[in-house]
């Protein structure tokens, strides 16, 4: 471990160095003062770095070595589906005919790109059991909001604009209630029961003529399949509401159960999870939305259609559409990757993906249940949630366990989520990991559980091997430093 | 079935099932009610091998006319700029692109620091106090600015200049509807926001005035005056700015902007048929705690070493849920990295040189069009776009141009009925004199 601070790129600057070359100007030189209005010529240059190309490459290589990705090691981050990101996807997305096409080119010059999107749309319809899919939303949260806006438009079109309540279980991802707010709804939170599933009685209690929708994640964020799904959909439909499926966790149910067959009216998917769009250190994503027939008129503009002559067309003539949700047509580059993945796996492959994702999660759960509390003891789907409450009594918190895992080269699981589990540890192995990897990780988890009993300090003071130790987050928030200043 | 992404062997599987205490994988799905169980396999295309699939998709890609093999004069919000080769090498480092959001700072210092640098560069360029870690794109970023303004001022009306990108304006309108915010379009005059009309429209219900800089027609707006009018009415001044242009233009932060947004696609990001690009969001300090999305802050570790963390998270959905300032979770981190690398490669000098070349080459094109007998619609100061009047439909002309390997300008008649037969021509630093001359000559053939 070294004590030097890692330099910021700005600290490497040496005036006069450059990292670029341009062709010399081949048209007559002009003076900016003659071309721009007075007061609009920038007086103080923006302080961007002044470094050579090698400086840049070394800087970012050094930074990359201070970062952990799926390619660096196991990354069992629950609710994030950190599976292997196939390299063929990266190659295909960089094909010039995909990367270097402008969204506003004439449709006749981009039929290949449109065909790919159309085929992806159609595949996702089949995978979700929905009647139509839009690929425009840029990420999961954006998809949630898009679908909720459609539900809102649907109710308004039926003269039921008064429906202003969206019901969300307490175990839901934070984006669900936040998206409801952005779409102009009020959120009602319902409790999970003893068994970790939505409490039907609580649901019945809150539904009514003001119910716009129920947002449900299935399997839920505990990794449990909501067995009463048909009953829940019925309760909502009976009062005239719509049922929304947060499909971020589709990895658990592909070829096993489709949102469309479970009574859902709409669904969003995270192509950057189940369908291997790499997470990119936080983005980009792609959050397509699938809908049943009665929501189709409200799809965002434009809708990609196939014409009778076999060509593809962006249809803007959609009078009941909620409008545009994003400039152009979505995160095309991520959609290309997801499409490549689906074509790589095929029908058998996608089924195997889910089966192994679920097998792996159950295997780890059973290997660890003796050493950590397992609040919901039944078959899980793609992920499971342990509780660190036993270790907490020994003075070792879940956060400490997460930090201790860093010493062994692992990215920790998601911790303190979902909110309805005390000291939650949410583990999602994914199907691309080998048994050896799962076993090695479980061995370390077991070792940490023993350390908590025998030598808690080593856990409490972890990590011991990382380039920085625990960081002072309170200080960061109290006196925010959000940019470099000389 | 064997697959290269699925490592489990039959023996692994049997051992694991034994540990779990079930005799088949199917047993693990017994909680899915029979009536909703999907039977069989999806009706999608069969799997293809790596080589066969690459061949098929290469052929599909080749059906598109791209801006590498053709000469592009198409802009309208997405530009064909110099993309330093180093950008792709950096973002291809899988420690970056296969990582999730940096929730564990000890093993995510690389990403956190890179984005802290991005925030710094955007703040520098825009002249704002701080910037966030990225938004989906320029359009949704502008919409978020509108929601921030409405929340901050507790007002429900937003004035959007008619010279804002039409697709951005559409996105703002969709978001505004969800929030019951009224959108009013400010008319344009001579290709810029009509100042007199704006004065008549602002009132004590105006949450924000939104303009674009340079605007959709390539013209430079009078930000100073528009900002003053907005602030007199106690609204927030929102500027959607092309960050490359800010290499030579006075930044919005110096001209009264409260919020500056836009898209960093101009920095090393391919057109990608419209995405992924990279929205940015920058504000003055007084709005710091209302910013949507993630913010990276500097701090120290237990040994006093400098480090970076996600900060001010009390604004965000995972903490505040329905009270969050925005619903955004995943953003465009990898593109923010790409933009940072490109901004670094250009550096302090390069960004000025590139921005200036855009203006000077566009001026050359303007003169060339006029010399060839075309009318250029707006005569104000421009960045890298001009509006050229044509005698025939722009879409028809473009169909001819593509045969000559030229991707023509945006057909403004597609959006504005009064601008039929008007092409929005973009001239970046990559366009050579010969290419510009060829465009003018080829378009001239339709101007007889
Ligand atoms: C269950 C669930 N829903 C929604 C989201 C939000 O997706 P995104 O980050 O793409 O906006 C996530 C992401 O973590 C999730 O796990």
Question: What does it look like?
Answer:
The complex is a heterodimer of chains A (486) and B (448). Chain A has 486 residues and is an alpha/beta fold. In chain A, 35% of the residues lie in helices and 10% in strands. Chain A contains 15 helices and 12 strands. A 7-stranded mixed sheet of chain A has the order 1-7-6-5-4-2-3, sandwiched between helices. In chain A, strands 10-12-11 form a 3-stranded antiparallel sheet, covered by helices on one side. A two-stranded antiparallel ribbon of chain A has the order 8-9. The mean pLDDT of chain A is 97. Chain B has 448 residues and is of the alpha/beta class. A 7-stranded mixed sheet of chain B has the order 2-10-9-8-7-3-4, sandwiched between helices. In chain B, helix 9 links the parallel strand 7 and strand 8. In chain B, helix 6 crosses helix 7 and helix 11 crosses helix 13. Chain B is globular, with a radius of gyration of 25 Å. Chains A and B meet through helix 2, helix 3, helix 4, helix 5 and helix 6 of A and helix 1, helix 2, helix 3, helix 4 and helix 5 of B.
Task: Describe how the helices and strands are arranged.
The complex is a heterodimer of chains A (about 475) and B (about 450).
Chain A: H1 32-35, H2 53-64, H3 87-93, H4 96-99, H5 111-128, E1 132-134, H6 140-157, E2 165-169, H7 175-182, E3 186-190, H8 200-206, E4 211-217, H9 229-238, E5 242-247, E6 266-269, E7 289-291, E8 303-306, E9 312-315, H10 332-368, E10 384-387, H11 389-393, H12 398-406, E11 414-415, E12 424-427, H13 435-454, H14 456-460, H15 473-478
Parallel strand pairs in A: 2-3, 2-4, 4-5, 5-6
Antiparallel strand pairs in A: 1-7, 6-7, 8-9, 10-12, 11-12
Chain B: H1 10-20, H2 50-62, E1 71-72, H3 85-91, H4 94-97, H5 109-126, E2 130-131, H6 138-153, E3 157-161, H7 166-178, E4 182-186, E5 188-189, E6 192-193, H8 195-201, E7 206-213, H9 223-232, E8 236-241, E9 259-263, E10 279-283, E11 295-300, E12 306-311, H10 317-320, H11 333-371, E13 385-389, H12 394-403, E14 406-407, E15 410-411, E16 422-426, H13 433-444
Parallel strand pairs in B: 1-14, 3-4, 3-7, 7-8, 8-9
Antiparallel strand pairs in B: 2-10, 5-6, 9-10, 11-12, 13-16, 15-16
Helix pairs in contact in B: 3-11, 5-11, 6-7, 11-13
The structure holds pyridoxal-5'-phosphate.
